[in-house]
Amino acid sequence: MTTFFTSDTHFGHGGALGLYRRPFSSVAAMNEGLVEHWNEMVGPNDVVWHLGDFAIRQRPEVVAKFSPGCVVTSTS
Predict the structure, then answer these.
(1) What gap in Å lies between CA 73 and CA 23, rounded to an integer?
(2) What count of other Cβ atoms lies within 10 Å of the Cβ of residue 36?
(3) Which of 21, 24, 45, 47 could pair with 29 as two cysteines, CB 3.0-4.6 Å apart?
(4) Is the distance from CB of 30 to CB of 75 less than 8 angstroms?
(5) What DSSP designation does 67 have?
(6) pLDDT per position as a tens digit, 14-63
């Protein structure tokens, strides 16, 4: 088991493309790229602590594409 810490993925946030200079042509491409990279790194027995700014207005289908690892979020 590996424990990861991350934050500020901003799934679905169009403003993140320009604000953070993300190299994607669209929000959909950004979401897919982030999910692909996440799934390359996170395994089914891993734990991910996501410390904030996970997503904005995302449908459950986007989150369901993640690896089956455990994701713990913090809202503080």
Answers:
(1) 26
(2) 10
(3) 24
(4) no
(5) -
(6) 888 888 899 999 999 998 898 899 888 988 888 888 888 877 877 767 66
Whether the Cβ atoms of residue 11 and residue 62 lie closer than 8 Å to each other? yes
CB 56 within 8 A of CB 32: no
What strand order describes the sheet that includes 3-6? 3-6, 47-50, 70-73
> Which one-letter amino acid corresponds to residue 67?
S
Residue keyed to tokens 């986007």: 62
The CA distances from residue 19 to 14, 23, 43, 61, in Å, are: 9, 11, 30, 25
Contact between residue 9 and residue 56 where contact means Cβ atoms under 8 Å apart: no
Q: The tokens of 50 are what?
A: 């996501």
* pTM assigned to the model: 0.74
Q: Strand 47-50 to strand 3-6: parallel, antiparallel, or no bridges (unpaired)? A: parallel
